[in-house]
Amino acid sequence: MDIVHFRGRTGSYLEPQAGKPDLSLMKMAKPGLAFELRSIVHHAKKEGNSVIRENIPIQEGGEQRSIAIEAIPLRDLAEPYFLILFHDPKAQPHALQYKRVERKFVSDEDKENEKDILINQLEKELAQAREDMRSITEEQEATNEELQSANEELQSGSEELQTLNEELETSKEELQSTNEELTSLNQELLSMNKNLKTAKNFAIDILETVREPWIVLDSLLRIKSANNVFYKTFRTSEAEIENKSVLSLGNRKWNLPELEILLKKVFQERSTIKDYEITQEFPIVGERTMLINAREVIREEGGEKLILLVFGDITDKKMIEKSLEKSEFRFKLLVETIPQLVWITDAKGKPEFYNSRWKSYTGSDDTEAEVERWLNFVHSEDRKKVLDHWQNCLETGESLSVEYRLRDSEGNYNWFLAKAQPVFSTDGEIMKWFGTITNVQVQKEAGNTLKKSSEQFRQFTELIPEKVTNANAKGEVNYYNKSWEDYTGWSQKKLKQKGWLELVHPDDRAGTLKRLKVSVEKGVDLEIEMRLLDRKGEYRWHLTKAIPIKDEKGEVKQWIGATTEIDRFKEEEKRKEGFLQLVSHELKTPITSIKGYVQLLLSLLEQKQQDIDNLPIAPSLKRIDEQVTRLTRLISEILDLSRIEENKLELKKKVYNINELVEETIQDINRTEIEHCIELEQEGDFDAEVDKDRIGQVIINLVTNAIKYSPDKKEVKVRIFESGKNEVAVSVTDQGIGISEQDQREIFKRFHRVEGKSEETYAGLGIGLFLAREIVERHEGEFIVKSKLGEGSNFTFTLPNSTKNQEK
Amino acid sequence: MTKERAKILIIDDDPAIGEMLKTLLEFSNYEATVSDNPLQAKEMILKLNPDIVILDVRLSGVDGTEVCADLKRDDKITDVPILMMSALTGADKTCRNAGADGFIAKPF
Q1: For residues A482-493, b (16+ Cβ closer than 10 Å) or e, as one string?
Q2: Which of A267, A400, A480, A563 could make a disulfide contact with A467, Cβ separation 3.0–4.6 Å?
Q3: Listing from the earlier edge strand, what are the strands of the sheet with A51-60?
Q4: CA distance from start to end of chain B
């Protein structure tokens, strides 16, 4: 309720408040009037008519008077105004003062003011005022509520307004940007148009300079234009082809229905011909393969539809392709036929190809294998090694070479050697990796077998009593087996340090070295006899044999040597040597004797003057006979010996009475005129299954030995007795030179003879005892000797009884 | 009158040889004595004073060459020629080394 216009002097009724200027009617109203004014305006507003109230008291300059206030609502105006009139009797007559209080007019007219009327009026007014107040308050409350809700509405309204505002803002912004876009699009369009124009011009320029032959056809497929290249390529000219149908080119060779259809389609459907391949025999140029590309072009002026046909000569390319195909075919053939497993990967190691052998070996199917999936076929123990190698190769570009076990389709593992090479492009970059995997199981097994057999060899050499050595190609020994250590008493280290040559007898050393040198140089087998020093400091005869081990080229890689102790053999050799000498001598002696007598007789007979009776024919012949017997015996002994050597000694066994056999034999010996006396003691009667002659031999041997070796004491005792269960024993005892303990072991050896000062001492072959024991043992008997040096000897042999004896 | 027969001493342990030689030599008009004991060789030579001694290389218990050498060392006997016999053809060297004056190989 603000005042909008003042007219006249309203100072008596209205007064500005202290502070900020406020035109509110109620605030400006002087005290006492505010209440009235309010009431009046309220009623005016409510009733819509002017309302006047009179006798309103005011105080001014000590005086009191009554005025009337009128409120008149002004209706014809656009907005509700009120005219507030102050009727004041004191008002200056010449000044009409109108006051617009909230578009209220105020005029002061009457100056009538009486105290009573005033009081009455005041009382009336008071009552009225109270009522007014009440209604006003009510209205105020209602208005307040309305205001409140109106406020709320306003609030929400204003909120909505706010959001609407914001939306409006965003829309505005969007609009703005859209506008901008549009603007820029427009610009683009403009520039594109421009570009198009230039491009078109440019294209035309290009076409003119392009290397490919092209022609432009009209809708009837007639050639409208062509470039120079076309003329040149097809050896034709503008005059020849212009306006001619394209199908008539090359003497109608181009008249291909397919081409025609395609060209027509370009016009009808605006399609394009892309890479249409034709191979034609062209006049002059020969057969060529062409790729035709065609599209519609529109000439700007006139909008005429045209086709641009571009030709690409791919004849050469085709040839290259063919040869590539061929080489690829050959490659595939190679890759599929070789026994290796083949694979190809890209530069990063991703598999691109496996040959069929790879697939059939692993049982892997055709599906794409990721980089690591092939690793699954590798033995788990080898995987890390393989992966490390492969990674290294991928990084460094070095070629791959690695051995590993690969699993086959049945789950078995075989050893393979994988080798791979990178393939480089022309700029030196790695494009692919080519790899082959070769089955080396056999080699590995062979290697293992070799290793195994090598180990077995070692084990073997350690066990056998032979001394075994291993030497390099130069003959330098790098291995001595255990037997060497045992024999020499040296450690392996010492043996290697000093070498076996140190152990060779000084007399044999030169010869050994020489033979060794020859063998090493020529690569031939070595065989040497030499004496080696043993741990006790004695030299013993050995036979060393060494053979070279050669490789495939025939070069010596190493030597294997075996050294055998032949001391015994040597000994026996010596004995044999001595034996042969002996044999020779023993045989020659009776022969000499025989020859002597024969020669004697012959020469005596020649002499003729001799009396036949004087000739000692009988005694000579007798001697001869004796000697022949002796010879015969000797020879048969030798034969026996050789038979024993070859295990061919045959025994013809029959049951004989031993006692009789011994008696007979002794009688025979006695007949040979010996000086000795042979005594026979028989403690029982025995039978046995024997070879009579052989056992006879044994007895003869023992007895003659007894005689031979007791030259001083002439008694020999023979005894037959039972020894043990089912055994008969025959013993021969003499009082001769006896046999030392050491010799007791030796006497049964072949060729052994009791030593005297030299080896050729006692007559006889020295095979007697050896034979005798053999014979006894073949009869399953035993041979026992008891003797003491200087106290005679006792030789006893036993024979198993025959059952007949038991019954006796 | 018969010429005095040359005396030959045969030292051999094998009677087959000894006897045969004796018979042979006696028929050839030599006086031959056989001894089978090489240890008594010196004694016998001194006693008998033979013109020649036939000595076998192989004697029981004794090496003939040693006997020969032994005899030759003795001044009294050294002049007596000693002929050695052996069944070994190669033994003549050893015999000669031992001082034998001759060698004969059996059988002869």
Answers
A1: ebbbebbebeee
A2: A563
A3: A51-60, A63-74, A81-87
A4: 32
What string of DSSP letters covers A262-294? HHHHHHHH---EEEEEEEEEETTTEEEEEEEEE
Nearest chain A residue to B20 by CA distance is A593
pLDDT in tens, A594-621: 888 888 888 877 876 666 666 677 888 8
Contacts with A382 (C-beta within 8 Å, 6 or more apart), sequence order: A404, A405
Residues of B in contact with A620 (CB under 8 A): 23
Which residues in chain B have Cβ-Cβ distances shorter than 8 Å to A604? 27
- Name which of A38-42, A116-120, A163-167 the model is least confident about: A116-120
Give chain B's count of helices (H) and strands (E). 4, 7
**Chain A window 608-647: which residues touch B at a Cβ cutoff of 8 Å?**
616, 619-620, 623, 626-627, 630
Is the separation of the CB atoms in A773 and A748 below 8 Å? yes
Cis peptide before B50 (omega within 30 of 0): no
Cα→Cα distances A397→A352, A394, A422, A433, Å: 18, 6, 7, 9
Q: What is the pTM of this model?
A: 0.40
Write down the pLDDT at residue A304. 72
Distance to chain B for A737, nearest Cα, Å: 12
C-alpha closest to that of B82 among B50, B48, B40, B43? B50
Tell me the β-bridge partners of A545: A527, A562
Mean pLDDT for chain A overall: 82
Which residues are registered as beta bridge partners of A311?
A292
Task: Report whether A258 contacts A247 (CB < 8 A).
Answer: no
pLDDT of residue A808: 43
Whether A760 and B14 lie within 8 Å, measured CB to CB: no
Distance CA A789, CA B57 (A): 27
The reported pLDDT for the residue numbered A759 is 32
What's A29's DSSP letter?
A: B
- Cβ pair A394, A349 in contact under 8 A: yes
Helix (H) or strand (E) holding B53: strand B52-56
pLDDT of residue A405 exceeding 70, the answer is yes
Q: For strand A715-722 and strand A727-734, is the pairing parallel, antiparallel, or unpaired? A: antiparallel
Identify the DSSP state of A370: P
Alpha-carbon gap, residue A63 to A55, rounded angstroms: 15
In this model, does residue A108 exceed pLDDT 60?
no
Residue A661's alpha-carbon distances to A338, A664, A691, A692, A695, in angstroms, are: 88, 5, 11, 7, 8
Chain A nearest CA to B29, separation (Å): 12
Give A569 to chain B, closest Cα distance, Å.
24
Taking 80 as the threshold, does the pLDDT of residue A49 lie above it? yes
- What is residue A245's DSSP assignment? B
The string over A510-525, giving b where at least 16 C-beta atoms fall within 10 Å of a residue's C-beta and e elsewhere, is: eebeebbeebbeeeee
- H-assigned helices in A210-245: 228-233, 238-241
Query: Who among B23, B24, B63 is closest to A757 (CB)?
Result: B63
Q: Express each pLDDT in B71-108 by its tens digit.
A: 888 888 888 888 888 877 777 788 888 888 888 888 87
The model's confidence at residue A761, banded by pLDDT at 50, 70 and 90, is very low
CA-to-CA dists, residue B85 to A427, A511, B24, angstroms? 106, 36, 16
Per DSSP, the residues of A95-148 read ----BBSSS-----------HHHHHHHHHHHHHHHHHHHHHHHHHHHHHHHHHH
Residue numbers in A near B62 (CB within 8 A): 756-757, 761
